[in-house]
Amino acid sequence: xxxxxELPEKELTADEEHFRSADAQSRFDFKKEQKxxxxxxxxxxxxxxxVISADKGEPEWMLKRRLRALRMFDxxxxxxxxxxxxxxxxxxxxxxxxYIRPDVETRGGVRDWNELPEEIRDxxxxxxxxxxxxxxxxxxxAQYESEIVYQNMQEQWEExxxxxxxxxxxxxxxxxxxxxxxxxxxxPPSDNKFAALHGAIWSGGSFVYxxxxxxxxxxxxxxxRMNSExxxxxxxxxxxxxxxSEVHYIEGCSAPKYGVFNLHSGAVEVFVGEDAHVQYSxxxxxxxxxxxxxxxxxxxxxxxxxxxxxxxxGSKSTMLYPATILNGRGASDNHITIAxxxxxxxxxxxxxxxxxxxxxxxxxxxxxxSKDGGRTNYRGLVRIAHGAxxxxxxxxxxxxxxxxxxxxxxMPHIEIHESDVDVAHEATVGKIGDEDVFYLQSRGLGDDxxxxxxxxxxxxxxxNELPIEYAVELNRLVELEMEGxxx
Length: 487
Prior knowledge:
14 helices; globular; about 475 residues; 10-stranded mixed β-sheet
């Protein structure tokens, strides 16, 4: 008989009970009946832009920027001629609903989950956002369709001058900062056709401002959920980290599967001040009828550090190449990415780094997995400008394929305009070896478990950089992809 006192079993919260009983697939694949307070007509016209801007009550200067971006979009051709680029022939902006304002009474979002309509609250409960906020986050934003429906920041950071709000609120409450940074020098609408589309039709997203010398010790998170069939989501994220500050921003994205295509064309702009540090982590799980066409870019000043941690799951096609411009001496950049493609998926991802100053450093680690005929591609650019003496860059691309039908490509482009630099590029492509699987089976694992363990080790560099809750989630998503469970 044991002499130790038995402890009563911990009573689970409703969220914890849900996570115990529900699998990850049900958390992402569910759909809700659409209830909208306002919905724009399909297509993209000047009248559509004016109606959306009026519905938001925007100032005249933002409307002018939208209309200017629309003119650029109309004048630009669709991307074409890129070797191996995803097929975008199905993408027809005239068939997309560009703006849906959810039926939430408080414009700009509420600060209490209980104030949300039941169907929206239930969506984010299933995705685990309230539980994550309670346990591990400094602040949370949640976007449903085209607008933020929930926004909250811990008081200790607000008292230190940290701003974490939705972009629509930032336009109204912090116009001077937004005018200076919004699509002016980091991601201008002239950058590419989908950046122009975004500039015309953007809605929602996050605004983060960290004052000089402030370290936000726990991450802030935004979650973007696309619920309606045939819609587009165009959130804008703007992060400004002043001198000597530090912040970790986490982004999650998902959508249920429908019979027609959806379009996600967001933009991210990050400004890293002198000796500041920003980490941007994202785990995306779009349904496989979604085209994911994003533009993400950071500008880093002297001694600053930018980190991109990215997991790309789902989508029919993805074109995503986070870029960093190292403008100050000693600035640095780190990219760690994982992409997973299964049948009928073309995941075209990569990284871009511009070394514009001496003693700048960058590291790119790209991991990709393809199975059942899926295609992954690393498409990267490293440019070292004249005068960027003692710059250093290391690129490592590793691809893992499950079968002979799958495809993995590596397309690096390296431009060096300075002689005194250190640049290395390494690429490997391989299959899961029969010997490795046999060894693990000899240790008692089944075939599927052995392959899962190999893949878990393969993606370990990215999971090591994520908070534990998100590392577990990423591993589970990869496991579901291997099982063919996610639609």
